Amino acid sequence: MKEARIAEGGMRYAEISAEGFVMAHIPNSESRDPNVEHPPVLLREAVGFLAPRAGGVYVDGTVGGGGHAEEILKHSSPDGVLIGLDQDGDAVRRCQERLAAYGKRVVVRQKNFRDIDAVLSELGYAAVDGVLLDLGVSWFHLKMPERGFSFALDGPLDMRMNTGVPHTAADLVNTLPRRELARILRDYGEERKAGAIARAIEKARARGPITSTAQLAGIVSSVSPPFPARRIHPATLTFQALRIAVNDEMEALREGLNKIVHILRPGGRVAVISFHSLEDRIVKQFYAASAKGCTCPPKMPVCVCGKKSSLTILTRRPVLPGVEEVERNPAARSAKLRVAEKKNDDPSCA
Ligand SMILES: C[S@@+](CC[C@H](N)C(=O)[O-])C[C@H]1O[C@@H](n2cnc3c(N)ncnc32)[C@H](O)[C@@H]1O
């Protein structure tokens, strides 16, 4: 794989981590410019699977910079409807502005996609034709140091996508028992040095609260092998784990998927783009479980469980970005798209 190189006078870390790639590809002069767009990942593939059509109703549950949403609107012209959700208020404002020209065809709300059922019922939709989730953070998060997602730019240790939720990454780092911190780093970061990092955090916070991203990155770096031996910045997995914990990302995904399956019309599709193995595993297992019908033991003469298959998996293997897309946008390199289609409620489809 081609390594992203640090642009002249650019960010310090530009290696294999998604954040490093993102930072390396935002020219310095633009690094804090909110008008630099988040490049939508697997755009053609995701929208191709959703196959938007005139008259259809679609939900972009992670509307972010609005790239996928706008493509869905174009393909469902002249009267398809797009409901965009994002838990980040800044993203919502940006999208409302970007998509204003589509008028009544667009509704953008600051909501977590785990509440998709409530939003749709508020808006008066009983069912929809397609749902897209493009998980994780956007460029806007990573390049705004004040949001605290970046170990490459110093800022307050925040990491909340929804700034209305009570706990920041600093709260977790400064108050959780060491063992719980280690569990988070292990479960959400798959960090092999979770125990040692948690111990270093405990030692550091005894001297005073850990308040900035650079401070935390420094503590983690003191434990891990020196960069670049590890090829990613030593704090990459710690930052990922804390971000997932702060935003309760795994639970939101599980809840969201469970609800999406119920709000899709027969023939409607759900497309999920994930960026790490934890998310991808949840999506893959959810699709597999929903595609499976009766789970009674084979000896059972008649079905007693009553479980019916509700989804057909359209991507046996995940769809990955092509070489060209990764060259253009290296942050896309770990993306995986999985798509499934809602089955007919007809009991013969079990
Ligand atoms: C990768 S970006 C999406 C980019 C978007 N597809 C585009 O074309 O610009 C992910 C966005 O999803 C939002 N997000 C992440 N988890 C969410 C959740 N559970 N509910 C709502 N929004 C979420 C983030 O705030 C972020 O803006």
Can you lay out the helices and strands and say which pair or pack?
Blueprint: H1 18-24, H2 43-50, E1 57-60, H3 67-75, E2 81-86, H4 89-98, E3 106-110, H5 116-123, E4 128-134, H6 139-143, H7 169-175, H8 178-189, H9 194-207, H10 213-223, H11 236-246, H12 249-263, E5 264-274, H13 277-291, E6 311-313, H14 323-328, E7 336-342
Parallel strand pairs: 1-2, 1-4, 2-3, 4-5
Antiparallel strand pairs: 5-7, 6-7
Helix pairs in contact: 2-3, 8-9, 8-11, 9-10, 12-13
Bound molecules: S-adenosylmethionine.
Describe this structure in words.
By secondary structure, this protein is of the alpha/beta class. It has a domain at 43-138 and 249-294 and 310-349: 3-Layer(aba) Sandwich (Rossmann fold). The chain is built from 14 helices and 7 strands. Strands 3-2-1-4-5-7-6 form a 7-stranded mixed sheet, sandwiched between helices. Helix 4 (89-98) links the parallel strand 2 and strand 3 (106-110). Helix 9 packs across helix 10 (213-223). The protein starts with 17 loop residues before the first helix and ends in an 8-residue tail after the last strand. The model is unreliable at 1-18 and 20-34 (pLDDT under 50). The structure holds S-adenosylmethionine. S-adenosylmethionine (SAM) is lined by residues 38, 40, 61-62, 64-68, 85-88, 91, 112-114, 134, 136-138, 161, 252.
The end-to-end span amounts to 44 Å
Reported by name, the CATH topology of the domain at 43-138 and 249-294 and 310-349 is Rossmann fold
CATH architecture of the domain at 43-138 and 249-294 and 310-349: 3-Layer(aba) Sandwich
Radius of gyration: 21 Å
* CATH homologous superfamily designation of the domain at 43-138 and 249-294 and 310-349: Vaccinia Virus protein VP39
What's the arrangement of strands in the largest beta sheet? 3-2-1-4-5-7-6
- Poorly predicted regions: 1-18, 20-34
The hetero compounds bound to this protein are: S-adenosylmethionine
Give me the number of helical elements: 14
Overall geometry: globular
Mean pLDDT: 89
- Using DSSP, what is the number of strands? 7
Order of helices and strands: HHEHEHEHEHHHHHHHEHEHE
User: What is the percentage of strand-forming residues?
Assistant: 5-15%
The helical percent reads 25-40%
Largest sheet: 7 strands, mixed
Q: Assign the structural class, choosing from mainly alpha, mainly beta, alpha/beta, alpha+beta, or little secondary structure.
A: alpha/beta
